[in-house]
């Protein structure tokens, strides 16, 4: 199959205007294929040659202006349109298209709970061609009219309001001008909750087996949707540009969500079957906010080519977090006044859960600018690689810094100008910067060059001393201290510096600290140290408030204060900055893994923010213990982690903090080295003191028992019979692959790399179960097998499975030079498809970093 190049897209955009697609989809033709009939009305500005894309199972017929063309001329995914005359044309294509089991194109899923079937589209990048024929590039926007024939009893959702004409026939209202990749259809016996807001129909939808769980959260989901919708209308001059707002929670979805205008699709794990924390609910709310921001950033105004994907994702990421903060702050204040737990701080979650994604991606060989040079994104295959922590987390961080530097008023004025000039059209980075510049006297073009066209993470280091020569204290009392900030990097930063003193007479935790003051600082300045009044603070935190994107290094005295007083810092966002500093130092082999674990053991029992507890525990377990700790230190590291979780469980026995208790129970299960406690919980159906075991906790315990060799296939089969849902099937696949027997590993490997029948979610679950720390004797022989098998699999099954293989089936726990050497040699294989190559480059760099951390620990010992 040919990928579209930037040059080809530019040439085609110069030749064609595409006015309208009229599409008829018949979903009643069987379980393997569906019928797709497309009429495309377009105008050729001049005579010439071009092509249309389609990936059919069978191309039955094609005609241009009523004249039949030869279907045999289809070349891969391209049908040539040669000697095209200038003027209006109408192209008709009739094809049978294959359903997908990998989340690409028209995905088909049969719910094992009740046997009901659902289909939905995911047309991002080049997957529209799997559903209907198209001139498939983002700058050939068009109107789309879609009719769907579906089985009786199904309902149909689309970008516009769908009307049922009887006998399974549905007509979806025509869209305004949108890009091909944003077209969406979802069909099945959906359970729906509908309402109206601001004169528009709103709806949320899920498969029937999840109906009780969606109903339980419907008010929360719709309330946050309405609040976000209203807040975006306060920020943006352009009104919401579509005729309805539906949100469908769909099965086996590859991404978190997709911003199809009028029909946002979400992975249906966001319909919670089991207990979740407030932070997880906040994450769902943020995804809702992110996708709604896309209605303007990406849908109303769309990138011209994929080098500007950040214009979609960075803005949706920033706007999602910022706007969610704005709509939930009044709730938090009300909760505090009512004596309840406040809604979590959204930016804390960003700092601890998302920002590290950007920092990690930006330090790998695969890093790229937020806004890469167009030549660096020559085709759609390379564009797909840029949907990463840089385009999301780093880009959002850069925008947050831009707002801090520019001011929110001018920032919003610039983006509203952008919407007004380019609505229902396309725009580039140059367009956006020009529109921002029109709203301010600041040099936005220079800022963009420094922030958006460069790679890497700056490091800001604090140096504190008495002024030399002695300078008069600003407050005249004879005491002062000097702060100098050195920068390793090239970007300008406007940061807030926070200073803290030991609190007198404080109770409730180790080393309580009190804020002395916060002040703004531009880095680099003129090189002159900043003189501040009073004694030297106990703690000086650069980037307090987390408004810039940079690694931070504290001065020695401040770091000593952190080790004893981190949980005593009064603001959760400041604690997030400091925990990220510790995380960066571990990854850079500047802080021993054992020291990080000791800090977590000392401070997490006093932490009040769930996002911080979850983020620190996840890094401690998944990286510090499983990858960075040398083998001889593993027993002590695992004991520290287990003791920490046990302490958190003890501290929450009164039921006052169910979210914290749930996090602690989950991590205790995952860290357990003996089966006794887990087996008791499973047999009794509850953790002593709560919570009762829900499906998620049952499968989590059973997975850990499988790893420990304390369960068997019969127990897994019994659990699956009790929970025959889709997540039950995934849990069973994960457990079977985790069993510590040669037969279980061989069966799992065959399912992953030979069978080719696993859906995307079952593939992921099997891969997650296969590699387990402590099972190296069983899995060592598979390390070398992974590379040729994964390369062949990716070539057969395509980018979605390639990404899953690179992410989940990679031998991440084989932290040794031989594994690194084997993987590095595999990068030379000419058959590596780009999606897998990128994942392997990133994984091998993480492996190289883990080896460096272990080496530093060994040398220190």
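Q: What amino acid sequence fits the structure above?
A:
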């Amino acid at each position: 199959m040919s990928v579209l190049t930037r040059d080809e897209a530019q040439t085609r955009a110069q030749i064609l205007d595409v006015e309208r697609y009229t599409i008829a989809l018949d979903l009643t033709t069987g379980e393997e294929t569906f019928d797709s009939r497309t009429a495309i009305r377009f105008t050729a500005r001049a005579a010439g040659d071009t092509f249309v894309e389609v990936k059919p199972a069978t191309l039955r017929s094609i005609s241009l202006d009523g004249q039949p063309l030869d279907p045999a001329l289809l070349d891969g995914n391209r049908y040539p349109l040669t000697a095209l005359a200038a003027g209006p044309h109408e192209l008709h294509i009739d094809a049978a298209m294959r359903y997908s089991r990998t989340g690409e194109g028209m995905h088909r899923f049969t719910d094992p709970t009740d046997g009901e079937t659902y289909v939905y589209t995911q047309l991002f990048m080049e997957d529209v061609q799997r559903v209907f024929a198209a001139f498939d590039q983002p700058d050939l926007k068009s109107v789309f009219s879609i009719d769907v024939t579906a089985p009786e009893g199904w309902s149909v959702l689309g970008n516009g309001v769908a009307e049922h004409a009887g006998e399974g026939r549905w007509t979806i209202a025509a869209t305004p001008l949108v890009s091909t990749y944003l077209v969406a259809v979802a069909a099945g016996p959906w359970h729906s909750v509908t309402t109206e807001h601001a004169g528009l129909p709103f709806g949320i939808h899920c498969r029937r087996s999840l109906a009780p769980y969606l109903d339980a959260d419907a008010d929360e989901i719709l309330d946050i949707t309405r609040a976000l919708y209203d807040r975006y209308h306060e920020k943006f001059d352009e009104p919401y540009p579509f005729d309805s707002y539906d949100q469908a929670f769909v099965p086996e979805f590859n991404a978190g969500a997709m911003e199809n205008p009028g029909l946002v699709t979400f992975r249906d794990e966001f319909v919670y079957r089991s207990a979740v924390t407030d932070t997880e609910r906040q994450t769902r709310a943020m995804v809702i906010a992110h996708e709604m921001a896309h209605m303007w950033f990406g849908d109303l105004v769309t990138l011209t080519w994929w080098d500007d994907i950040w214009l979609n994702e960075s803005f949706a990421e920033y706007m999602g977090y910022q706007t969610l903060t704005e709509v939930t702050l009044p709730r938090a204040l009300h909760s505090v006044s009512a004596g309840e737990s406040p809604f979590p701080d959204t930016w804390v979650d960003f700092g601890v859960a998302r920002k590290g994604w950007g920092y990690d991606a930006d330090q790998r060989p695969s890093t790229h600018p937020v806004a890469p040079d167009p030549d660096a994104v020559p085709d759609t295959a390379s564009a797909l690689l840029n949907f990463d922590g840089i385009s999301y987390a780093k880009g959002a961080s850069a925008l947050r810094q831009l707002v801090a530097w520019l001011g929110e008023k001018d920032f919003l004025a610039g983006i509203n100008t952008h919407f007004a000039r380019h609505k229902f059209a396309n725009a580039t980075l140059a367009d956006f910067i020009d529109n921002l510049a029109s709203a301010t006297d600041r040099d936005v073009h220079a800022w963009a060059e420094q922030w958006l066209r460069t790679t890497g993470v700056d490091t800001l280091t604090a140096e504190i001393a008495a002024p030399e020569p002695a300078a008069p204290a600003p407050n005249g009392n004879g005491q002062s201290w000097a702060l100098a900030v050195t920068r390793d990097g090239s970007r300008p930063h406007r940061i807030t510096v926070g200073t803290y003193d030991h609190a007198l007479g404080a109770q409730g935790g180790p080393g309580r600290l009190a804020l002395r003051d916060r002040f703004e600082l531009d880095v680099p300045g003129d090189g002159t140290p900043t003189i501040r009044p009073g004694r030297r603070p106990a703690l000086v935190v650069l980037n307090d408030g987390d408004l810039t994107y940079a690694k931070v290094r504290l001065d020695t005295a401040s770091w000593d204060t952190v080790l004893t007083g981190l949980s005593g810092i009064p603001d959760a966002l400041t604690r997030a900055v400091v925990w990220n500093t510790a995380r960066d130092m571990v990854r850079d082999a500047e802080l021993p893994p054992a020291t990080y674990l000791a800090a977590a053991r000392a401070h997490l029992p006093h932490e009040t923010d769930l996002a911080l507890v979850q983020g620190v525990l996840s890094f401690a377990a998944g990286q510090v213990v499983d990858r960075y700790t040398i083998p001889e230190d593993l027993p002590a590291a695992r004991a520290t982690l287990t003791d920490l979780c046990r302490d958190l469980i003890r501290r929450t026995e009164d039921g006052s903090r169910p979210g914290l208790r749930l996090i602690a129970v989950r991590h205790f299960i995952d860290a357990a080295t003996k089966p006794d406690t887990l087996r008791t919980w499973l047999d009794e159906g509850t953790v002593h003191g709560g919570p009762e075991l829900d499906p998620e906790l049952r499968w989590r315990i059973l997975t850990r028992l499988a790893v420990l060799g304390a369960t068997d296939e019969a127990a897994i089969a019994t659990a699956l019979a009790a929970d025959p849902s889709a997540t039950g099937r995934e849990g069973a696949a994960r457990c079977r692959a985790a069993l510590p027997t040669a037969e279980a590993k061989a069966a799992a490997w065959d399912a992953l790399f030979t069978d080719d029948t696993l859906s995307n979610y079952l593939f992921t679950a099997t891969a997650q179960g296969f590699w387990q720390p402590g099972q190296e004797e069983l899995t060592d022989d598979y390390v070398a097998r992974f590379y040729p098998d994964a390369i062949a699999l990716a070539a057969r099954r395509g980018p979605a499975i390639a990404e899953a293989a690179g992410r989940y089936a990679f031998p991440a726990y084989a932290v040794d030079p031989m594994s690194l050497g084997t993987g590095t040699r595999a990068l030379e294989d000419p058959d590596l498809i780009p999606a897998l190559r990128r994942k392997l480059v990133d994984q091998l760099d993480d492996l190289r970093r883990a080896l460096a951390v272990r080496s530093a620990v060994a040398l220190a010992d």
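Q: And what stands out in the fold?
A: Confidence is low (pLDDT under 50) at residues 332-342.
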